[in-house]
Amino acid sequence: MGVVGTTARWTWIWPALAWAILLLSLVLGGGGIVYAAAGAALFGTVFAAVYHAEVVAHRVGEPFGTLILALAVTVIETALIVSVMIAAPAEKAGLARDTVFAAVMIVCNGIVGACLLWGGVRHREQGFQAQGAGAALAVLVALTSLTMVLPNLAAQELGPLYNTSQLVFAALASLVLYLAFVFVQTIRHRDYFLAAKGATADEHSPPPDNRTTGLSAALLVVSLVAVVGLAKVLTPSVESAIDYLQVPKAVVGTIIAALVLLPEAVAAVKAAQSDRLQTSLNLALGSALATIGLTIPAVAAVSIAMGYRLELGLDIKDLGLLMLTLLLSVITLGTGRTTVLQGVVHLVIFAAFLFFAVVP
């Protein structure tokens, strides 16, 4: 993952700057300069948080490393969703659905497509463990069906909503499915998620020492809290921009998902470039599973505890894109070998998602 044994200066400067801007916003309130500074700090702090997660991940090794990265990104995403929901619960009933759906599209089409295309250009054909990808896709199909398909069918009089008991069941089922996948990935069938025999070995620098790892763990927590605070500061400006551009409200969810997944996308593409496609897929698919398996239970708990409306069911257009993505992923990742063609197909579907999100 390209982690060095010492903490890079920028990885603590950005969180410190983020906290300074948070304190400044409490004193001065909103404003163009504050919003601009908060946006820049948020962007840098997200990268810093993922960097520190990467340091800790490098210490514990694979596949635990990619799991830690996925969990760190999911914590950021969940915190952003919950903070925005609490700020405007009536207007943000569908934010969790929009963000989770966008994350699945970005991961399964954008990140995976970029990895397959770039890896295919550099290495013509790449291999990975089909058993691990198959296990991840099986859980992904179940999770997306429970959380974004069934709500439209289970209680049709409620539209895209579950009733309370159904929501509790879906949240618990999502958590169980994700924990079962983590058990298989890290303990029961760990070899399914390691580089296949004959594949290029990971090229790591020596693992960081205990002091560096502990410092990164602490800075990771500081960074995550700062990200949540900056998200609350930026929420009014993001909504104003969406209204000014006259694009659908669902784009807010896409922006949140893209922001938190960008650093991980860079890490995944770099791994594919180095002929480590297994690491790329562990990062990508692990993020998609964590996004649903952890975010949905969290927002469900908040909505039930505070009496907020939580819309989860997709409309027909998004449902079609989801089904197409899942079918394509099963076909693409079912053989254990990929070329540039699969990458191009995934990226075209990703482009379709972005187009129809802006032009419904």
Q: Which structural class best describes the helix and strand composition?
A: mainly alpha
Order of SSEs: HHHHEHHHHHHHEH
Model regions low in confidence, pLDDT < 50 over at least 5 residues = 1-5
The percent range for helix content is: over 70%
User: What would you call the quaternary organization?
Assistant: single chain
Sequence of strands across the biggest β-sheet? 1-2
The CATH architecture category equals Up-down Bundle
The major β-sheet equals: 2 strands, antiparallel
- Output the CATH class name: Mainly Alpha
Q: What's the tally of helices? A: 12
Query: What Rg do the Cα atoms give?
Result: 20 Å
**At the fourth CATH level, what is the homologous superfamily?**
NCX, central ion-binding region
Termini separation (Å)?
A: 38 Å
CATH-derived topology:
A middle domain of Talin 1
Question: Strand share of the residues?
Answer: under 5%
Number of strands: 2
Number of domains: 1
**Shape type:** globular
What number is the mean pLDDT?
84
Feature tags:
360 residues; mainly alpha; A middle domain of Talin 1; two-stranded antiparallel ribbon; 2 strands; globular; disordered N terminus
